[in-house]
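Example record

One chain of 115 residues, shown exactly as stored in the release files.
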Amino acid sequence: MALSRSAALDRTFAALADPKRRRVVDLLRERPRRAGELAELAGLPAPAMSRHLRVLRESGLVEESHPPFDARVRIYALRPRFLAELKAWLEETEALWSEQLAAFAGHLERGGRGG
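Predicted structure tokens for this chain:
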């Protein structure tokens, strides 16, 4: 069963609330990486990185794959579709706030009167 847009955004924001997970996202923006490489670059022990990667996978931000030569190796990459959905939501929210602020500014320019 697919998550609603609201539930998916909630999971995304919860995943991105942690600065260590945001660091992982920053590293993966450069290119896909092995879990061990991410742990080393983020300065985290492997078990902690594993937990962060699980949260990022479950949120839909990151996907895991295995190279054909070794199923034990895990490669992580960003999932562009989820980032695109987050960007679309942010753009919609920005547009709403821009409209409301413009209406408020118009109200103030009219001296705060109702018409």
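Notes: The mean pLDDT is 85.
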